[in-house]
Amino acid sequence: MMLSVTRAWKLSCLALGAACAWASAWASTPEAALAAYRSGKSTQALSMLEEQLAANPKDPQLLLLKGVILAETGRSKDARTIFQNLIVDHPQLPEPYNNLAVLYAADGDFDKARAVLEMAIKTNPSYATAYENLGDIYAKLASQSYARALNLQPKKELQPKLRLINQVVALTPAATAPAAAAAPASASGSSAAAAPAANPPTPAPAPTAKPTSPTSGDNVEQAVREALEQWRRAWSARDIQAYVESYVPRYTPKNGMSHEQWVNERTARIVPRKRIEVELSDVQIQPRNDGSVAVRFVQQYRSDSLDNRTRKELVLTQQGGRWLIASERTL
């Protein structure tokens, strides 16, 4: 079965149903609203939820169920807003990530869906629904890649591969379940176990930094500029993985956030954007006595919702042959 829009909405029902199951495990679950929703009385369920949200506007289970109902009744934009806010307020919960990814997939934005599902798995490596959905997303991305390849190479050369990828895409959720179950056992907790053999395209990822061994000030400056450019490209491409990897391992900002909270907050701010453009100018590099390097520059940020210009300072340290961001502040 191809992962068409119809398939994506079938995924939506499966994933959002799992979210409801999660909600029902809470002691204060709105049982009446949940029962009304399950019996097909969505309008009545929404009214009940609105009454309870008036008293508890930040309750995650009420908001999650409201987002589910809005998505199922065609109000996907409002549902996306709810799930995005839940990710910011409750970054430890995998369900909002999963449901947001389902909505992206329904819109055909499979790159965003992939990135958000990977964050769901990082939040909870044993969350099987996210693995199952991620397997379907990878299959669709691979199918699209081969379809584009038909325009670049003779069809005769591609037919064996296309037959293989069509078989992969046709897998049912039951067929992908063993991979999903096995994935959490990996040491890294990554989503690779759920992915088909073909590698899906990613949105203009920043190139992997090459280890450098600078022996002069000029080499240090060049390596730092390359690291700064990779960070800028990853941000502009909304490549959250490459963006996070531009920072030192377990990076924590100075505002008190944990590393996980910072990653989730940046994901919520970067991935949903339709467009991000980051330009850097007036770059000044100053080596420090401790071996780190301070970089000051003017940052021009543009997206579909914001346009601002700020002056910023990054401090980079060299780890494993790479220059990585150790601290960041606005001047």
From TrEMBL:
Residues 191-222 are annotated as: Disordered. Residues 224-328 form the Cds6 C-terminal domain. SMART domains: TPR. One of its GO terms (molecular function) is peptidase activity. Residues 1-27 form the signal peptide. The keyword Protease applies. TPR repeats lie at residues 94-127. It is an enzyme of class 3 (hydrolase). Keywords: Hydrolase, Protease, Signal, TPR repeat. One of its GO terms (biological process) is proteolysis. Residues 198-208 have a biased composition (Pro residues). It comes from the Bacteria. The keyword RNA-binding does not apply. Its EC number is 3.4.-.-. PANTHER family: BLL7664 PROTEIN, CELL DIVISION CYCLE 16,23,27. This is Beta-barrel assembly-enhancing protease. The lineage of its organism: Bacteria, Pseudomonadati, Pseudomonadota, Betaproteobacteria, Burkholderiales. The gene is bepA_2.
